[in-house]
Amino acid sequence: xxxxxxxxxxxxxxxxxxxxxxxxxxxxxxxxxxxxxxxxxxxxxxxxxxxxxxxxxxxxxxxxxxxxxxxxxxxxxxxxxxxxxxxxxxxxxxxxxxxxxxxxxxxxxxxxxxxxxxxxxxxxxxxxxxxxxxxxxxxxxxxxxxxxxxxxxxxxxxxxxxxxxxxxxxxxxxxxxxxxxxxxxxxxxxxxxxxxxxxxxxxxxxxxxxxxxxxxxxxxxxxxxxxxxxxxxxxxxxxxxxxxxxxxxxxxxxxxxxxxxxxxxxxxxxxxxxxxxxxxxxxxxxxxxxxxxxxxxxxxxxxxxxxxxxxxxxxxxxxxxxxxxxxxxxxxxxxxxxxxxxxxxxxxxxxxxxxxxxxxxxxxxxxxxxxxxxxxxxxxxxxxxxxxxxxxxxxxxxxxxxxxxxxxxxxxxxxxxxxxxxxxxxxxxxxxxxxxxxxxxxxxxxxxxxxxxxxxxxxxxxxxxxxxxxxxxxxxxxxxxxxxxxxxxxxxxxxxxxxxxxxxxxxxxxxxxxxxxxxxxxxxxxxxxxxxxxxxxxxxxxxxxxxxxxxxxxxxxxxxxxxxxxxxxxxxxxxxxxxxxxxxxxxxxxx
Length: 591
Known about the structure:
four-stranded parallel β-sheet; 13 strands; 9% strand; 23 helices; four-stranded antiparallel β-sheet; globular; alpha/beta; Gyrase A, domain 2; Rossmann fold
């Protein structure tokens, strides 16, 4: 089934084309009506005609019989469209009967590579990794749901100069001791101890440098020791990903070592293309349009003066691999905003080298910082970075406390799972609901609240709807009410044609809100912005709350109204559950 916005856009496009082919209707939701088309104003300027005259010509050519009950022109030339109530009801029925709830699969599925999370071996995952992991996971889920081929790539930092230092520290403390430290996730201590030895001991520094050469030369014993560090760290990463409930697996890891053999080819091919320039001993590319504050050209350093490779070389190798081997049509790099210029310049070099061909997009999905209550970078009281695993454990503990304070009606055997869903969901939603390019303040009280724009509010809205059907089941089992047979038929999807009879304004508002789901999912995918789906789900939950308060469901005055309201409720619960799932958030049955 086409979503309402697409249907109206198609009809409006035909009407505008009858006036001037190719004109954009500029369709938007409206407070004055359900939708408003504003395209007559720019079209009138183009044609040299009065805007209202153009708008009236569009309306005269517009075919919306059975879709809109009213179409009129207001102001200087706005076309207002009010949907027919029967059409809204029929669309909701069609949506309810569709296992995809009206979300169409992509007509032309693309291969999309999503680069996200990217922790470093032998270092803790901290709160700074939260946003990349959570945003990336939501985008993966949304794109998969739309039918795209999605390739997850976790670009783990596990190669380079620091590993000489880390391997030598591993040798010094012994593999058993190192294994115990790393297996409990105490990676920061291990790294800091290695760094102290490197800074204080010239002999250790020299051994570390030799070890780097051995690593790059693929010495068998050095590679084995390196693998010990990598494997222990990956096991720790898996523990964090398990707590977060994200889709990343070990098979998704594409560490720096994977691309290391390709770096020489990157340099050689750039040189053959005549793009490399030597600058202070380093080999660079100067993409046009990038300058420093003094107007001097900025370089992309591909190979450093010591013949080591910069990050840009690895990123260029990534692009070549993802286009040539993976067949990517679109690449999303979920990385913080400070790296914006780096990616702009790397993408520009890839275009210059034809490694990023026309028709293939590379997008930096930038995000801001997580701040503390003082509006500075979120840190512990000691000033250290907040370990991500500690933050997640605290989220679950606080959720358990919140449930106890509310005396939540959750069966005892389900309480641990619900607390986990509530706590982790609260953290994820607080992150995802924010415009990703902005910083946000990490506030436990706000994000765990059952009111406002929070994860628990949406989860509670879903659980409350499910409770309607549990009450119906209980009443039917005890013979307390006759009307619950219809409720139970709908609850188990056995009722053949529930129908939607919209009479009250709140019923119409809820129907309209439901019909916006497909548009919200598409918008989140197109803009790589999970916040658009969050905003939709919050609006839906708020609209349902108003409906529930003003429109009795199980106690409706007649059977037809009960059927209609139960179907509205059931469809709302399905949309909330599926929408939360696309964000990587669970929707418990009880709260």
